[in-house]
Amino acid sequence: MTRRSTLLWVARHALAIALALMFLGPLVFIALTAVMSDRQALTSDLWPHTWNWGNFAEIFEKAPLLLWIRNTLLYSVLATAFTLVSSIPVAYALARFRFRGRRLAFLLVITMMMLPPQVVAVPIYLIWARFHLTGTLWPLILPMLLGDAFSIFLLRQFLVTIPRDYSDAAKVDGCGEFRTLVRVILPMARPAIAAVALFQFFYCWNDYYGPLLYAGTDLDNWTLSLGLAAFRSVHRVQWNLTMAATLLAMAPVIIVFFFAQKVFIEGVKLTGVK
User: Fold this and answer.
1) 63-271 sits in which CATH class?
2) Within 13 Å, how many C-alpha atoms sit on residue 228's CB side?
3) Among the listed residues 100, 76, 98, 96, the one whose alpha carbon sits nearest the alpha carbon of residue 88
4) For the chain, what are the domain ranges?
5) Read out DSSP for 127-154?
């Protein structure tokens, strides 16, 4: 019976198991290659003959990895914080306030989600060049103070589902709109806020186009994605070092998602994103 139940469980979850193996396969390959020697990394052997843990220390000697990590954290954390600060009030206004042009404003937010960033790259670059901020990461961080269309949409979809009875009860007790938002709505919207924060953090952590456009000429402002691309071209023969650097760049994102996956999935589910 135990063997039969096991076979039934495998049969019922065969598709999920196949997808899990498909996603885990590249990660396992990167991890195994990262601890191989230079010669073995160029062969077809999949299992390391010797475990060269010194590869992880060697990449810090051959590349300014700590500088790239610092710049990536600065970009990701500040952009995420600015996105939440600017997007939450806009989403709250679109979800709760009744004013003329509210549907048009929401339509404009959706339209901005469909606009490719490459379309406005040249005029925006010229604007930041006049402020002498090109060559830094600030042209990627400061615009987040104006809100993000996807974050506004995601938060608005969740705030619409919160019953108005809570905010009406808070107003009866003497709370204004700002206090109602801070004391009543935000605690109930934690799953959606966590989902938006993780989406934005992951996007900034993996962003390559933005840092390449604005900080590509200044090596001191390179992020991990930009630095790893250069590291791969310089050390393309040493695939073990390239995979070790890639694994270190992936580790923080995997760890963050592992600890926050429950609230992340709950936020995505409640906001209706498919």
Assistant:
1) mainly alpha
2) 20
3) 96
4) 2-56, 63-271
5) HHHHTT-TTSSHHHHGGGGG--HHHHHH
Tokens coding 36: 């191989």
| 29 vs 93: CA distance, rounded Å | 48
Q: Of the candidates 26, 32, 66, which has an alpha carbon nearest to the alpha carbon of residue 47?
A: 32
Whether residue 117 contacts residue 209, with contact meaning beta carbons closer than 8 Å, is answered with: yes
Taking only the tens of pLDDT, the chain with its 274 residues reads: 566 777 777 777 788 788 888 888 888 888 888 888 877 777 777 788 888 888 888 888 888 888 999 999 999 999 999 999 999 999 998 888 888 888 888 888 888 888 887 888 888 999 999 998 888 999 999 999 988 888 999 888 888 888 888 888 888 878 788 888 888 888 888 888 888 898 899 899 989 988 998 987 788 889 998 888 888 776 566 788 888 888 888 888 888 877 777 766 665 555 544 4
Q: Which two tokens stand for residue 104?
A: 């048009």
Residues 6+ apart with CB under 8 A from 273: 154, 157
Q: Rounded to a whole number, what is the distance in angstroms from the first to the last CA of the chain?
A: 38
CB 94 within 8 A of CB 105: yes
Please name the residues in contact with 235: beta carbons below 8 A apart, sequence gap of 6 or more.
62, 241, 242
Is the Cβ–Cβ distance between 180 and 170 less than 8 Å? Answer: yes
Amino acid (1-letter code) at residue 100: R
For residue 260, give both structure tokens. Answer: 């926050």
What CA–CA distance (Å, rounded) separates 39 from 54? 15
